[in-house]
Design the sequence.
C-alpha cells in the first residue's frame, strides 16, 4: 500500500509540475490544484497508513493518528481559498493584460 | 499564563472585523479604528518587550491544552523585538496610507490589520504548522494589498507572486509532513528534542525536511536563487504597501533564524542547512549589490536594497555566534525601518516629479528640494552604512563578529556591497536633485504633515545610533537566548521552569 500511495503522490506532483511549467494561467491553476492534492495526500499519509482503525484513542488495539487528519483539513481549506483567489486573479489578468501568460507578457514569436 | 500575549493577535483581528462592518460608513471611521489599533499594538508590544527583556520566556497555551499537544504561543526576546518592530513600522505606514492610498479601494482597512495579525502570529507561534497557517494569513492579506489600487502592472506582478507563493506553500507542507512522519510532532520545542535524539537512519529524511524548510523560508526572505519575484512586485505595488512589505522578507529571516537555532542547529545531527546559510547569504549580498547598480528606477533600486539587507542579515546569522546574530538583530530593525521610510519618501519624490515619476532621469525641479533632499541624504547614508548612522554601526558589529578564516570572505563582500550602494545612491540622488530642468510642477508643495511618516521612519536611523548601547545590550541577550535553546524548550514543555 505504501508503494501505491507513493506512486499516486509522485504522479500527481509530476503532472502538477508539468502543468505549472506550461505558464498559461489555466494550466497553472490545474497544476497547482494537482500539486495541492498530492501535498494533502502526503500530509495525510505522514501519520502512517492503517486500515480499519479508529482515529480516536480507545482501549481496543491500534488507532489511526488523528493529528494529520486535522492538519490536512486545515491545509485543504487554505488550499481551496488560495486556489479560488488565483482563479479570480487569473481572470482579472486575462482581462487587463489581454494574455493568459503567467508572466503577463505575450510569447515572443 | 499571561493574557497580554494574545493582544497582538486579537487586536488586529478585531480591528479588521470592525472595519469590515464599517465599510459602508465611509473611510473616516475605518481610519480611526486602524490608527487606534496601531497605537494600541505599539503600547501592548512595548509592554511585552519589557516582560521579555528580563529573559523570562512567556508561553500561552491556547485552550489550556498543554504542549506539545495543543497550540502554543511563545514570547522570547527575539519574538518581542519583532513584534515591537512590526508595531513601530505599522503606525507611520498607516498614517501615510491615510493620506490617499487607502481610498483607492474599499477594503484597505480590512486587509491591513489582518496582515499585521499574520505577521504577529508568525512571530509568536511555537508550532510549525501554526507558522504555516499564519504565513498563509499574512500571504493572502499581502496578495490583496499588493493588488490594492489595481492597474495592469500590479496585476502582472501579483499573479507571479501569488503563483510562486502557492508553490512555496506546497513545499512548506511537504516539509511539515516529512517532519511529522519522522518525529510525530510539529511543536518546535518538541521537534528540537526529537531531532537531537534522532537515529542515523532518520537523518536523510530530516535533512530533506530541513533543507526544504530553508528553501521555503529563503523564498520568503528572497535569498539568491529565489528573489526574482521581489523587485518587480515592490516597485509595482502602492508605496505604502511596499513600505509594509519591507518587513515581509524579515519574516522569512525570522523563520530561518528560529528553526535553524532551535531545530536544525549547526552542531545537531543535521547541520547542512545551517552550514549553507553563510555562503548563500554572501552570494545574495553580492548579486543584490550588482543589481542595485543596474537599477533604472528609484523603487526598483530600493527593492534591490531590501535584498542586500537580507543578505547582510543572513550573513550575520550564518556566523552562528552571539556577536554575529546580535549584529543581525541590530541591523534588522534598522534596515526594515529605513527601507520603509525610503519607499514612502520615493512616493513623495515621484509625485513631485510628475510624469518622470521615479525613473532615474532628469525631471522637473522639486518644490522643496532642500527638505526632500536632506531626508533622502539621511536615508541613503543610513542604508548604505555611512557613519555615524545605524547602518554603519550594524555593519561594524557584523564585521567585528567574523573570525579569521570567515572574515576573509565576509569583509570584502560586505564592504564592496556598501561601496556599490554608496555609488548607486549617490548617482541616484544627483540625478534626482541636481540634474533637474524646468520649473516645479504646479500644485501645492509637499507639506510637513504628509512628510511626517516618512521622516519619522528615516529618523529612526538617528535614534538607533543614539540608542545603540541599550539596543545592542538587548540584541546580545536575545542572541544568547537563541543559541542556548534549552531555556526555550524547558519553558514550552514545562520541564522545570527556570
Sequence:
Amino acid at each position: 500500500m505504501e508503494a501505491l500511495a507513493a506512486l499516486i503522490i509522485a504522479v500527481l506532483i509530476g503532472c502538477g509540475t508539468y502543468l505549472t511549467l506550461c505558464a498559461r494561467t489555466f494550466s497553472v491553476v490545474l497544476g497547482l490544484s494537482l500539486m495541492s492534492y498530492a501535498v494533502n495526500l502526503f500530509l495525510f499519509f505522514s501519520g502512517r497508513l492503517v486500515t480499519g482503525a479508529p482515529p480516536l484513542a480507545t482501549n481496543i488495539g491500534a488507532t489511526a493518528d488523528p493529528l494529520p487528519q486535522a492538519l490536512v483539513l486545515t491545509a485543504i481549506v487554505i488550499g481551496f481559498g488560495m486556489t479560488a483567489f488565483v482563479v479570480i486573479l487569473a481572470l482579472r489578468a486575462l482581462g487587463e493584460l489581454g494574455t493568459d501568460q503567467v508572466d503577463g507578457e505575450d510569447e515572443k514569436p | 499564563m499571561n493574557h497580554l500575549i494574545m493582544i497582538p493577535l486579537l487586536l488586529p483581528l478585531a480591528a479588521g472585523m470592525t472595519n469590515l462592518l464599517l465599510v459602508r460608513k465611509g473611510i473616516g471611521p475605518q481610519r480611526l479604528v486602524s490608527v487606534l489599533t496601531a497605537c494600541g499594538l505599539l503600547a501592548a508590544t512595548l509592554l511585552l518587550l519589557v516582560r521579555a527583556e528580563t529573559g523570562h520566556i512567556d508561553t500561552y497555551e491556547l485552550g489550556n491544552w498543554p504542549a506539545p499537544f495543543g497550540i502554543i504561543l511563545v514570547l522570547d526576546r527575539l519574538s518581542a523585538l519583532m513584534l515591537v518592530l512590526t508595531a513601530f513600522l505599522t503606525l507611520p505606514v498607516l498614517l501615510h496610507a491615510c493620506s490617499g492610498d487607502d481610498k483607492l479601494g474599499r477594503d484597505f482597512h480590512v486587509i491591513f490589520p489582518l496582515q499585521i495579525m499574520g505577521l504577529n502570529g508568525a512571530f509568536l507561534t511555537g508550532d510549525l504548522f501554526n507558522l504555516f497557517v499564519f504565513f498563509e494569513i499574512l500571504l493572502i492579506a499581502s496578495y490583496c494589498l499588493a493588488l490594492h489600487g489595481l492597474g495592469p502592472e500590479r496585476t502582472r506582478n501579483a499573479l507571479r507572486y501569488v503563483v510562486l507563493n502557492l508553490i512555496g506553500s506546497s513545499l512548506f507542507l511537504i516539509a511539515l509532513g516529512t517532519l511529522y512522519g519522522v518525529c510525530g510532532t510539529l511543536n518546535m520545542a518538541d521537534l528540537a528534542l526529537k531531532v537531537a535524539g534522532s537515529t542515523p537512519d532518520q537523518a536523510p529524511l530530516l535533512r530533506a525536511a530541513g533543507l526544504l524548510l530553508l528553501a521555503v523560508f529563503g523564498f520568503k526572505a528572497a535569498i539568491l536563487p529565489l528573489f526574482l519575484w521581489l523587485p518587480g512586485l515592490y516597485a509595482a505595488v502602492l508605496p505604502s504597501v511596499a513600505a509594509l512589505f519591507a518587513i515581509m522578507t524579515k519574516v522569512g529571516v525570522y523563520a530561518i533564524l528560529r528553526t535553524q537555532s532551535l531545530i536544525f542547529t549547526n552542531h545537531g545531527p543535521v547541520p547542512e542547512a545551517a552550514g549553507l546559510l553563510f555562503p548563500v547569504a554572501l552570494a545574495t549580498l553580492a548579486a543584490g549589490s550588482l543589481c542595485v547598480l543596474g537599477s533604472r528606477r528609484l523603487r526598483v533600486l530600493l527593492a534591490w536594497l531590501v535584498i542586500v539587507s537580507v543578505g547582510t542579515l543572513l550573513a550575520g546569522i550564518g556566523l552562528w555566534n552571539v556577536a554575529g546574530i546580535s549584529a543581525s538583530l541590530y541591523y534588522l530593525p534598522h534596515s526594515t525601518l529605513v527601507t520603509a521610510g525610503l519607499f514612502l519618501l520615493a512616493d513623495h519624490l515621484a509625485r513631485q516629479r510628475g510624469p518622470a515619476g521615479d525613473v532615474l532621469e532628469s525631471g522637473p525641479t522639486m518644490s522643496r528640494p532642500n527638505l526632500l533632499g536632506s531626508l533622502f541624504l539621511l536615508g541613503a547614508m543610513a542604508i548604505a552604512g555611512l557613519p555615524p548612522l545605524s547602518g554603519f554601526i550594524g555593519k561594524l558589529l557584523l564585521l567585528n563578529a567574523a573570525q579569521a578564516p570567515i572574515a576573509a570572505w565576509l569583509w570584502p563582500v560586505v564592504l564592496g556591497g556598501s561601496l556599490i550602494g554608496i555609488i548607486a545612491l549617490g548617482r541616484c540622488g544627483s540625478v534626482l536633485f541636481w540634474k533637474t530642468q524646468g520649473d516645479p510642477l504646479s500644485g501645492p508643495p509637499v507639506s510637513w504633515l504628509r512628510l511626517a511618516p516618512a521622516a519619522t521612519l528615516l529618523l529612526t536611523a538617528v535614534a538607533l545610533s543614539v540608542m545603540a548601547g541599550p539596543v545592542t545590550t538587548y540584541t546580545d541577550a536575545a542572541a544568547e537566548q537563541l543559541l542556548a535553546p534549552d531555556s526555550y524548550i524547558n519553558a514550552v514543555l514545562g520541564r522545570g521552569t527556570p
Observations:
- Chain A has a mean pLDDT of 87.
- Chain A touches chain B at residues 20, 25, 28, 32, 35-36, 38-40, 42-43, 45-48, 65, 67-68, 71, 74-75, 78-79, 81-83, 85-86, 89-90, 92-93, 96-97, 102-105 (CB under 8 Å).
- Helices of chain A lie at 2-21, 25-45, 66-97.
- The two ends of chain A are 48 Å apart (CA to CA).
